[in-house]
Specification:
The complex is a heterodimer.
Chain A: E1 4-7, E2 10-14, E3 19-25, E4 32-38, E5 45-51, E6 56-59, E7 62-67, E8 72-77, E9 86-92, E10 100-101, E11 105-110
Parallel strand pairs in A: 2-11
Antiparallel strand pairs in A: 1-3, 3-8, 4-5, 4-9, 6-7, 7-8, 9-10, 9-11
Chain B: E1 4-7, E2 10-13, E3 19-25, E4 31-38, E5 42-49, E6 56-57, E7 64-67, E8 73-78, E9 87-94, E10 104-105, E11 109-113
Parallel strand pairs in B: 2-11
Antiparallel strand pairs in B: 1-3, 3-8, 4-5, 4-9, 5-6, 7-8, 9-10, 9-11
The chains are: A mainly beta, B mainly beta.
């Protein structure tokens, strides 16, 4: 089955810096790669996703890149703000099959 | 429009007791999932359902049972709770006419087994 690895487990940056979180997946048939943000005491919420027919997607300060050959994808956050502090999860799936999550990255943005 | 609602939000059980967690959705989604979240281990799939009357095992199904008698509800049962089942449980749903869509999560149920 699918296995998703996520690094780093914690990431501390200064406000205004960029943050990068990386994930690798094992099943070459996976074709959907979402990123979720989880704030304290809440359920995860989708912030951006990418499908396997696209190499990069941007939404304001957030971007995701996908390298199908290497089976890895990354989340890029530019101009970080304190409100970006949260736990971020990557995931992978095929169609409506189960989403398999990475182990999470705790991002801390210091003012 | 509440989205995905989990009941209860908090619960403390004694070892050996049983309980049922309820997930209710008003999004008309076919697919529903139960995950548990433990520190350093991310979200692990317990059981899932691809439609009313169907259920399937995920990564960590032992000690849990599920039922999907109605499309809008997905129940997770613990028959005989153990301290290892202390965790935060999340329900999620997916649906729509297009595959590879967003999963919507409930607010979570924090369960402590003593």
């Amino acid at each position: 089955g699918e296995n998703v690895e996520q690094h780093p487990s914690t990431l501390s940056v200064q406000e205004g810096d960029s943050a990068v979180i990386k994930c690798t997946y094992s099943d070459s048939a996976s074709n959907y790669f979402p990123w979720y943000k989880q704030e304290l005491g809440k359920g995860p919420q989708l912030i951006i996703d990418i499908r396997s027919n696209v190499g990069e997607k941007k939404d304001q300060r957030i971007a995701v890149t996908l390298n199908k050959t290497a089976k890895h994808f990354s989340l890029h956050i530019t101009e970080t703000q304190p409100e970006d502090s949260a736990v971020y999860f990557c995931a992978a799936s095929k169609g409506f099959q189960k989403l398999v999550f990475g182990t999470g990255t705790r991002l801390l943005v210091s003012p | 429009n509440a989205g995905v609602t989990q009941t209860p939000k908090f619960r403390v059980l004694k070892t050996g007791q049983s309980m049922t967690l309820l997930c209710a959705q008003d999004m008309n989604h076919e697919y529903m999932y139960w995950y548990r979240q433990d520190p350093g281990m991310g979200l692990r799939l317990i059981h899932y359902s691809v439609g009313e009357g169907t259920t399937a095992k995920g990564e960590v199904p032992d000690g849990y049972n599920v039922s999907r008698l109605k499309k809008q509800n997905f129940l997770l049962g613990l028959e005989s709770a153990a301290p290892s089942q202390t965790s935060v449980y999340f329900c999620a749903t997916r649906g729509g006419s297009r595959a590879n869509t967003e999963a919507f999560f409930g607010q979570g149920t924090r369960l402590t087994v003593v």
